[in-house]
């Protein structure tokens, strides 16, 4: 059989709420054309993020009922730690309420003013947490990632020659760690190859610098490696993931992505001294080391989710269904970041709407129109989010895990193609109100 189906059936459903174009026009006006400010009940298909929006399985819900809510020494923690250690091999597992809490603890311990942290591409909270310590976050994506149209296998890779140069100029003593984000979220959800992780590790190890994975989408990355990288096709996704983690000295992780949990995260390290310092910080703001800001039931949901996500049937469906959306719009002439990544499709709005200058936010204009036309929520990743530092004007359509069926995605495809057919009529936007930082969450716009 060639047809790839959703590898689950549905036991519990959540109704969707239809609205009319007139109602949506009103909601847009009330929200100042900012989709973050629209009530979720007025969204039909929500592709704002894949974070914390997964559908949990029956096994996860059952595990939640087993949650041990003891303050100290909870069984739920031991179950979660066993799964994490079996997967990653790291000695210390520190639970946190989400990924950014793991980042804050790690960088507080490791970074000082004047330090530099390289990454293939920093996620926004990672960058913010590094810069909050006075250190500098530097992106070193591989040069081929700059061409959104190039269909290459591992566009999430780090530029190892640039890493060598950076270590030479800054001096290894000022680089407390090297990070690799798998998959590369801000770089289009593109995977990092095992060969690249090995090469980065070699460079870092030669200078005595530890390597950390920002492992939020480790399973999607492992699937791409298993499918695409020479010599890996005989491995299971779990074996690939274990190889990835074996090359690192530690990791940060948001369980809101590849653990199908609605909340949670963790920080891992093999360094005993570091773990002791991190645990002290954990107690200060997150909680006792066997719960770290989470309920016991959350830890159990994560433990089960981490095993489910490595099911080859699930990963095949996941990557094929994201690619399905990408191919159906790209092959009909909508420019996307090629090839489709694991968790999202990114439309290149500057290329699609060349008549709207960057100063008038083409990707935001497209997000607004997609909501007005069909009730679909997406997110601008461009000049609204990053200001003058934006390198591209992208519209991200993130796919929540196990939530939408193919007919939902067919509806999204139809909506995008209808908007594309009359794209000349789209007009840009102007900001009428903005806060001093992270303006994309609360800015208000006016139509031009
Ligand atoms: C989501 C994410 C984070 C932060 O995790 P939160 O759970 O949202 O705090 C860090 N890095 C990457 C790559 C992410 O996608």
Structure report:
- The protein has 448 residues and is an alpha/beta fold.
- It has 16 helices and 14 strands.
- It has a five-stranded mixed beta sheet with strand order 2-8-7-6-5, with helices on both faces. Strands 9-12-11 form a three-stranded antiparallel beta sheet.
- Helix 2 packs antiparallel against helix 11, helix 3 runs parallel beside helix 11 and helix 12 packs parallel to helix 16.
- The longest helix is centred in the last third of the chain and has 19 residues.
- It is globular and about 60 Å long.
- The structure holds pyridoxal-5'-phosphate.
- Pyridoxal-5'-phosphate (PLP) binds next to helix 4 and helix 5.
- The site of pyridoxal-5'-phosphate has 15 residues, from helix 4 and helix 5.
Number of strands: 14
Tally of separate domains: 2
The major beta sheet can be summarized as: 5 strands, mixed
Strand content: 5-15%
* Separation of the first and last Cα atoms: 51 Å
Structural class by helix and strand composition: alpha/beta
What CATH architecture label of the largest domain applies?
A: 3-Layer(aba) Sandwich
Which residue ranges are poorly predicted, with pLDDT under 50 across at least 5 consecutive positions?
Answer: none
Described by the principal axes of the CA atoms, the overall outline is: globular
- Spell out the helices and strands N to C: HEHHEHEHEHEHEHHEEHHHEHHEEHEHEE
Question: What is the CA-based Rg, rounded?
Answer: 22 Å
CATH class of the largest domain: Alpha Beta
Number of helices: 16
CATH topology of the largest domain: Aspartate Aminotransferase, domain 2
Strand order of the largest sheet: 2-8-7-6-5
CATH superfamily of the largest domain: Type I PLP-dependent aspartate aminotransferase-like (Major domain)
Bound molecules: pyridoxal-5'-phosphate
What level of helicity do the residues show? 40-55%
Mean pLDDT: 96
């Amino acid at each position: 059989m060639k047809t790839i189906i959703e590898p689950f059936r549905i036991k519990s459903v959540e109704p969707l709420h239809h609205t009319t174009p007139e109602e949506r026009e009103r909601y847009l006006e009330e929200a100042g054309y900012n989709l973050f400010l629209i009530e979720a009940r007025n969204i039909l298909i929500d592709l704002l993020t894949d974070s914390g929006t997964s559908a949990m399985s029956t096994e996860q819900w059952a595990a939640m009922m087993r949650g041990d809510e003891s303050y100290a020494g909870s069984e739920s923690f031991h179950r979660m730690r066993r799964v994490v250690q079996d997967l990653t091999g790291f000695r210390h597992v520190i639970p946190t309420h989400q990924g950014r809490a793991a980042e804050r603890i790690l960088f507080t311990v490791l970074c000082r003013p004047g330090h530099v942290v390289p990454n293939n591409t920093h996620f926004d909270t990672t960058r913010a947490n590094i810069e909050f310590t006075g250190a500098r976050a530097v992106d070193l994506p591989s040069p081929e990632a700059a061409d959104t149209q190039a269909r290459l296998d591992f566009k999430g890779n780090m530029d190892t020659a640039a890493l060598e140069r950076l270590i030479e100029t800054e001096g290894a003593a000022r680089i407390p760690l090297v990070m690799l984000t798998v998959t590369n979220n801000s770089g289009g959800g593109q995977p990092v190859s095992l060969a690249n992780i090995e090469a980065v590790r070699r460079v870092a190890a030669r200078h005595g610098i530890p390597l950390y994975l920002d492992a939020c989408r480790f399973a999607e990355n492992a699937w791409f490696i298993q499918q695409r990288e020479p010599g890996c096709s005989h491995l299971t996704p779990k074996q690939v993931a274990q190889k990835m983690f074996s090359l690192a000295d530690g990791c940060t992780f948001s369980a809101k992505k590849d653990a199908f949990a609605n909340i949670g995260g963790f920080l891992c390290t093999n360094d005993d001294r570091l773990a002791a310092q991190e645990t002290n910080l954990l107690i200060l703001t997150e909680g006792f080391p066997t719960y770290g800001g989470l309920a016991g039931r959350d830890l159990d949901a994560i433990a089960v989710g981490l095993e489910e996500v490595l099911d080859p049937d699930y990963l095949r469906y996941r990557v094929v269904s994201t690619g399905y959306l990408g191919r159906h719009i790209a092959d009909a002439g909508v420019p996307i970041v090629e090839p489709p990544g694991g968790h999202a499709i990114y439309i290149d709005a500057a290329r699609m709407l060349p008549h709207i200058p960057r100063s008038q936010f083409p990707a935001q204009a497209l997000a607004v129109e997609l909501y007005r036309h069909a009730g679909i929520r997406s997110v601008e990743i461009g000049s609204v989010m990053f200001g003058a530092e934006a390198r591209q004007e992208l519209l991200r359509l993130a796919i929540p895990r196990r939530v939408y069926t193919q007919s939902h995605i067919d509806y999204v495809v139809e909506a995008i193609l209808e908007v594309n057919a009359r794209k000349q009529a789209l007009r840009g936007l102007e900001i009428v109100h903005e806060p001093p930082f992270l303006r994309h969450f609360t800015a208000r716009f006016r139509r031009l």
